[in-house]
Amino acid sequence: MSVMTVRYLGAVQFEAETRGHKVFCDQPVSSGGFDEGMTPVEYLLAALGTCAGYYAAEYLNANRLESHGLEIKVDADKVKGPGRLDNFRIAVHVPTKLEAKHQDGVRHAVEKCLVHNTLLNTPSITTAVTVGDPDPLIE
Length: 139
What we know:
29% of the residues lie in helices and 26% in strands. By secondary structure, it is α+β, with helices and mostly antiparallel strands.
């Protein structure tokens, strides 16, 4: 899996880069940012939505069903203790009518999404702090 490198740009802005692709992260003006990019939480929702969309489109295309106009909406509740997102909701809109078996097929396909399954199964996370030159092992 590729490594994501995140660089602090100043204020509350960051740049994330992997495989030569870059995205920028910011905060709304009301949170001290410049609103020039999505927030980290919005990127998390985007990751879930695009992953779900990938699996839904794969199912539709494999079954020769209309995928043009496929739309996924994702939201979640912000909760405390500790602060986090909970109650994620994925709404998949397919532009044409589907038989019940294909509606179930799309739902099952979306539930195979890597991001979906990562959120359902608590991953382990380790944190390391280095000082000086970046760790050459993770670049």
